[in-house]
UniProtKB/TrEMBL annotation:
Lineage: Eukaryota, Viridiplantae, Streptophyta, Embryophyta, Tracheophyta
SUPFAM superfamilies given in the database record: ENTH/VHS domain, GAT-like domain
InterPro entries named in the record: ANTH_dom, ANTH_dom_sf, ANTH_N_plant, AP180-like, ENTH, ENTH_VHS
Protein known as: Putative clathrin assembly protein isoform B
A Pfam family hit: ANTH
A GO molecular-function descriptor: clathrin heavy chain binding
Signal peptide from the UniProt entry: none
């Protein structure tokens, strides 16, 4: 087996050098072809940065679109023709990095190319040359599904979660939110299921068998983990927004919203398990993981009660609100009444309140959030833009610098 692997590596190196030689002689895009071959070579090591940067440049906005299309075609051909898991995963890593770090226009070019044929659809890919190759092939197929879902999310909703920055509701406030915090109920019902499907594909990227300890797999997984924080941040803000507008929904929309809320609770549990799994990997030494928690069952019961009595159409919502005696609605009415009676300049003044009366309000305030910031000082920046959030982003960026034993960057 050792001799076979040695011969296979030698054959892979020979193929790479031959392809590079042919590109130097025959290719109109000589520099680009060489960069792609070297970035996706048979060497079991992440793509070298200088080759990736050349591909970034070739897919930038100022390049002719025909040249960008040629680059995509070459990457797609490289992915579809290979039967080597190392070449396949390095090709996917290059594509993933362009989507994350390259020119935003590349997404549209990639979508247009995918409409004309199969791309990132490698469900039949396998490398059965060894037990390691077999396990890694399974993970490569899962990785491709995640990238395909990421591209589909952008195609349908025209937004990129990874490129998003937290925004402040007003210049005078320190709290920042994802764009999902400001969506309407109709937009939430459209976008949150797509976000949840993307998170579903992400959680599925759990390496198994011999792929668990492979460095190249962990390098790609680090890219995925970096995205998971922002994806779940956007989903969490969207769920909080959904809860705020839930009791204004007609019955049909409320049923869909309840399904989204229940799935969010299940995904919080699945993502927490995924993080625990990833903490056993070498890359975990450079990552900071958030703490997730389940939504309370009592709030789900209130939502289900609303659905049983919810108006079928929007025109009857007001009638329901006038008769609504749920604890959440009564509490909201009480807060609105207090706010209307209290002068603006006295809003921030603290008044003595009986301790027993404040306890239900504290429980009420903890209902919607699914991410716990206990002992993390809100590291994800879910509620506030602060140095801790920036520190998390910078520290997690270092996760891509993990080096295999005896290796060098």
């Amino acid at each position: 087996m050792g001799t076979f692997q040695t011969l296979r590596k030698a054959y892979g190196a020979l193929k790479d050098s031959t392809t590079v030689g042919l590109a130097k002689v025959n290719s109109e895009y000589k520099e680009l072809d060489i960069a792609i071959v070297k970035a996706t070579s048979h060497v079991e090591y992440p793509p070298k940065e200088r080759h990736v940067r050349k591909i970034f440049y070739a897919t930038s906005a100022h390049q002719p679109r025909a040249d960008v299309a040629y680059c995509i075609h070459t990457l797609a051909k490289r992915l579809s023709k290979t039967r080597n898991w190392i070449v396949a995963i390095k090709t996917l890593i290059v594509i993933h990095r362009i989507l994350r770090e390259g020119d935003p226009t590349f997404k549209d070019d990639l979508i247009n190319y995918a409409r004309r044929g199969r791309f990132l659809q490698i469900s039949n890919f396998k490398d059965d040359s060894s037990a390691l190759a077999w396990d890694c092939s399974a993970w490569v197929r899962t990785y491709a599904l995640f990238l395909e879902e990421k591209l589909e999310y952008f195609r349908i909703l025209r937004c990129d979660i990874e490129a998003e920055r937290l925004t402040k509701p007003s210049p005078t406030k320190t709290q920042g939110h994802s764009r999902t915090r400001m969506l309407t109920s109709e937009e939430l019902l459209e976008q949150l299921p797509a976000l949840q499907q993307l998170l579903y594909r992400l959680i599925g990227c759990e390496p198994e068998g011999l792929a668990f300890s492979n460095y190249l797999i962990q390098y790609a997984l680090a890219l995925i983990l970096k995205e998971s924080f922002k994806i779940y941040c956007a989903l969490n803000d969207g769920i909080i927004n959904l809860v705020d507008v839930f009791f204004d929904m007609p019955k049909y929309d409320a049923v869909k919203a309840l399904h989204i809320y229940k799935r969010a609770g299940q995904q919080a549990e699945n993502l927490a398990d995924f993080y625990e799994y990833c903490k056993r990997l070498d890359l975990a030494r450079n990552f900071q993981f958030p703490t997730l928690r389940q939504p309370p069952a009592s709030f789900l019961a209130t939502m289900e009660e609303y659905i049983r009595e919810a108006p079928l159409t929007a025109t009857k919502r007001l009638e329901y609100h006038e008769n609504d005696q749920s604890p959440q609605r009564e509490e909201a009415k009480h807060r609105e009444a207090e706010a209307s009676e209290q002068p603006d300049e006295e809003v921030n003044e603290e008044e003595p309140v009986d301790k027993d009366e404040t306890q239900p309000k504290e429980e009420e305030a903890e209902l919607p959030p699914l991410i716990s910031t206990d002992d993390t000082d809100d590291l994800l920046g879910l509620n506030e833009i602060n140095p801790k959030a920036q520190e998390l982003e910078e520290n997690n960026a270092l996760a891509l610098a993990i080096v295999p034993p005896g290796g060098t960057v």
